[in-house]
Structures are given as structure tokens and as C-alpha cells.
Amino acid sequence: MASYLITGASRGLGFEMTRQLLSLPVSQVNKVFATTRADAPGLNELAQKSAGRLVVVELDVSKEATIKEAAKEVDANLLGRGLDVLINNAGTMPWSPNGVVTMDNLDDTFITNVLGVHWVTQAFFPLLQKGNLKKVANITSTLGSIAMAPQYAAGPTPAYKVTKTALNSLTVQYAIGYQKEGFTFFAISPGWLKTDLGSQNADLPVEVGAKATLDKIIGAGKEQNGQFLNIHVEGSEKKEGPNQYDGANPPW
Q1: Where are the beta strands (DSSP E) in the chain?
Q2: Phi, psi at residue 206, to the nearest 5°?
Q3: 53, part of any domain
Q4: Distance between CA atoms of residues 134 and 82, nearest Å
Q5: Which domain of life is it from (predicted)?
């Protein structure tokens, strides 16, 4: 039995991963903590049907005070047990149609996409130390790959690209720093998904991306520590365009 915490779970990928984790047997997933910064009717409905397996927790990754309060709430719900898996999913992607990174959106995006991940990881670290799996998955994007930057040059989301690059580096630093304690930290790109963030022009239905992402997270072991993972979607290994979902690690 494993416990999971997912940030940014009120919609999109976070919500779908929450839903799919609850569909797994209790012997595999016994508790899911889904965080949201505002009221989330969909999550509340899932929680009511979960027989206590889902706990909805208020948490805004851009506000340290809410993170610390959320950690206390999760600790109380775990009744002395540890947290097994943390999925840092919350993120933001502002558009800059003119291609210029304004100071305002870079600052705000960095707080959510990088500092927020750091703050959440720090706050829940004592619980992760008590957990059995000690696994942290940071949801990133191939848009953060420096090597692949030229093929994504047309995308008007420069602040998002910069912060995902920084998130990848943060992930590696955590992986190096805590591997001797048995931790597994990795970054994973869930693909371009049909969500509010990704738009309906995206490659994959969110249900497909969520399943492929969870398959990678659940299957990850110590050999994935510090890696940048890509999902595998059968039939999309050699699709047209910059995104191939072949399961091979993207270049940094």
C-alpha cells in the first residue's frame, strides 16, 4: 500500500492522475492527497466516493504559509505513517505573444514552477523520509530542454520554457543530494495534453497522458534517480512533429 500527494489536482493532468490512482486497488494505493488552491467540486465529489482514500487539501504552491499548513494536515491524516510518493504537478504557463519575457511573468512563473516545487518538497520531506518508497516526480516539459529549444522556438511561452529548464536542474540537485538516503527524484514530461493548459490542439487526450505518466512514476526505481523521463504511448513513437512518445529520455 502506498500514499501519494499530487499538487495542482483540481483540473487537467493533476485531476486525472488523482482519478486514475483511485481506480487502482487499495493494496496498491491506499491514500491520495490531492491539493488545490481553491474550491474544487470535482475533487470533492471524488473524495465523497473514495471511502476515505482521497483527502482534498488546500495548498497554494506560491504561498509558503499554505504549504506548511498543508504538510501539518497531511501528517495528521497519515497517523504516524510516512508519505510514499510526491508528484509536483502544479504549474503555470503564461503566454508572451510578442516573444518577449517580461519581468513580471518570469518572476511569477518562476515562483510557481520552481520555487513552489522546492517549497513543497522541503515541507513534505520529513514525511517522505518516513515513507517506504521515497519517490518524488516533478512534472516538467520537453519545452525545458535546451537541446530541443530550436524546434520549440515558435511557442510563445518563454517564461514557461526557462522555468522548466530550471526545474530540471533543481530535480538533479535533489537527486544527487539525497540518493544516499534512498530517495528517487526524477523529472517527467507528460506530453502535450488536451487540457486548459495544453489546449484542444494538443497531441494526446489527458486520460492517455495521465496513464502513461503514472505508469512511469509507479514503475520508476533507483536507476531513474536524476533522470528526465518521457512517456510511452503505443502508436505515437514516431508521430509527426517535435513530440515522440517513445519512452526514451529526452535530451537535457
Answers
A1: 2-6, 29-36, 54-58, 85-88, 135-139, 184-189, 193-194, 204-205, 228-230
A2: -60, -35
A3: yes
A4: 9
A5: Eukaryota
Q: Which residues are catalytic?
A: 141, 160, 164
Cell representation of residue 205: 487526450
User: For the chain, how many structural domains are there in total?
Assistant: 1
**Cell 471511502 found at:** 51
End-to-end CA distance of the chain: 34
SS3 190: coil
pLDDT at position 198 is 67
What confidence score (pLDDT) does residue 196 get? 76
CA distance 209 to 32: 19
Predicted confidence at residue 101, as pLDDT, reads 64
Which three cell numbers mark 115? 520555487
- Look up residue 188 and give its three cell numbers: 517527467
How many CB atoms lie under 10 A from the CB of residue 94? 17
For the CA atoms of 220, 221, 222, 223, the dihedral, rounded to the nearest 10 degrees, stands at -70
Q: What is the pTM of this model?
A: 0.96
Residue 235 inside a domain? The answer is: no
64 CB burial (10 A radius; 0-12, 13-18, 19+): middle
**pLDDT of the residue at 231:** 96
The answer to whether position 240 is within a domain reads no
Domain extent at residue 101: 2-230
* Residue 236 domain-assigned (yes or no): no
Residue numbers of the chain with a pLDDT score lower than 50: none
Q: What is the pLDDT of residue 203?
A: 73
CATH number at residue 21: 3.40.50.720
Alpha-carbon torsion, ordered 165, 88, 112, 110, to 10 deg: -20
